[in-house]
Amino acid sequence: MPAVKDTLAKFRQVRKVYYKPDGSILVEALKGVDLSIGRGQYTAIMGASGSGKSTMMNILGCLDRPTTGDYLLNDANVSTMEDEELSHFRGRTIGFVFQSFNLISQLTIEENVEAPLLYQGVHKHQRRQRAIEKLELVGLGDRLEHRPNELSGGQQQRVAIARALIGEPLVLMADEPTGNLDSTTGESILQIIDDMHDQGMTIIMVSHDDRIAERCQRVIHLTDGLIDSDILND
Q1: Which CA distances in Å does 40 have to 9, 108, 171, 197, 202?
Q2: pLDDT tens, 159-214?
Q3: Residue 33 and residue 11: Cα distance in Å, rounded?
Q4: What predicted TM-score, i.e. pTM, was given to this entire model?
Q5: Domain residue ranges of the chain, discontinuous segments joined by +
Q6: Which of 112, 156, 183, 218 could join 43 in a cystine, given CB atoms 3.0 to 4.6 angstroms apart?
Q7: What are phi and psi of 77, to 5 degrees?
Q8: In this structure, CATH architecture of domain 7-232
Q9: Which class for 212: exposed (0-12), middle (13-18), buried (19 or more C-beta within 10 A)?
């Protein structure tokens, strides 16, 4: 495992087991993984279907918990947090971008981007101001009143990125962010993510695409719930 000077995320012997209704083991998705990800690092997590990469991303993103082991994010032990505390911590710390965009069709794109701040109790005027700022950042400042179905797939993913950034997270986590896009549109989305990294954002991306891995600083390959390679790119 490459040495990490300033650790943002750390797994210590993280194991994740899914059980059958009778209590027997259905699958052991992660088998005692040790991992450190540095602050400001651009990391790809790769592997075949069933390798454990989605489980790893869900735990890194505080959407799931380890069965055993510890997960520390920004020096906080996520493994021991109660659900409500974990939810608030996740909202303040992590921005998510998914393959399927996950936008609310009844809302304008400005309202979609504002939504995370609504749950954090941010005042309406400030929510709007920050949403406009992030939409301008991704090139959609002139589409504030449009709804998702009035936008292309690439534009919807730009909205999703703006929403992920609205809370000023420490880390942006992207799960196959170009999976539903053509190659040209996907490249424009990856360029926005590259720009976020250039500004100091920590990026963790799940992908099966070797072309995406080539632009990352670090590539972690999983096989059968274990890290089988962990490479720093030049």
Answers
A1: 11, 32, 8, 7, 4
A2: 999 999 999 999 999 998 988 889 899 999 999 999 999 999 999 999 888 888 88
A3: 7
A4: 0.91
A5: 7-232
A6: 218
A7: -85, 95
A8: 3-Layer(aba) Sandwich (3.40)
A9: buried
